[in-house]
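From the methods appendix. Each design record in this collection lists the tokenized structure first, followed by the designed amino acid sequence. Records were kept in a plain field format so they could be parsed without special tools. The example shown here is representative of the layout used throughout.

RECORD:
FOLD TOKENS (194 positions):
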């Protein structure tokens, strides 16, 4: 049995580490060590949604989740069939309406998590304060560059960059205008607005 220690990892690392362990696992059984709370719930839900039975044991520090990687049932939920390109429209440098620090952490985790998904958007359009994510000083420039290298078109609003005096500080992707942004949104098979 292979054991993977996911304790003391910030979200989304426990789920991402679990996903990678499953992909690389040649062993019949896998044990994941996770913290109590969100990490335990998120990893368990991730495994169950993929058809795995999870046996859980409480430890002094966290939980041990044991799964048989050869005995996965068909996933309970299937992804909907998609047609056309997917465009992600970002209009803020944070996710949600709560505290600024939490919103920025959630946005960072969202962008990093995109790297682990099998289906990527075709474009990411950054408007308003979201252009701060593509410019110098942003914590997500590196993951956004990786997404761009994987074929995701990263587009930042030129008017917004000018407004925030950031055009010369653009670090990833290219500058776009409202016409091109509107055209991309109207032609998309699906638009996800953050």
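DESIGN:
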């Amino acid at each position: 049995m292979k054991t993977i220690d996911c304790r003391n990892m910030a979200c989304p690392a426990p789920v991402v580490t679990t996903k990678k362990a499953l992909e690389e696992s040649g062993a019949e059984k896998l044990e994941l060590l996770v913290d109590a709370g969100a990490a335990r719930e998120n990893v368990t839900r991730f495994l169950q949604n993929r058809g795995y039975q999870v046996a859980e044991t409480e430890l002094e520090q966290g939980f041990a989740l044991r799964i048989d990687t050869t005995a996965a049932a068909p996933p309970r939920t299937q992804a909907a069939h998609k047609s056309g390109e997917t465009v992600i429209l970002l209009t803020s440098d944070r996710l949600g309406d709560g505290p600024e620090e939490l919103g920025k952490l959630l946005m960072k985790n969202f962008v990093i998590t995109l790297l682990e998904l099998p289906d990527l958007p075709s474009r990411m359009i950054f408007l308003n304060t979201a252009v701060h994510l593509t410019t110098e000083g942003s914590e997500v420039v590196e993951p956004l560059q990786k997404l761009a290298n994987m074929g995701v078109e990263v587009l930042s609003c030129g008017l917004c960059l000018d407004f925030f005096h950031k055009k010369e500080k653009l670090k990833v992707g290219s500058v776009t205008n409202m016409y091109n942004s509107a055209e991309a949104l109207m032609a998309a098979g699906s638009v996800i607005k953050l």
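APPENDIX NOTE: The two ends are 41 Å apart (CA to CA).
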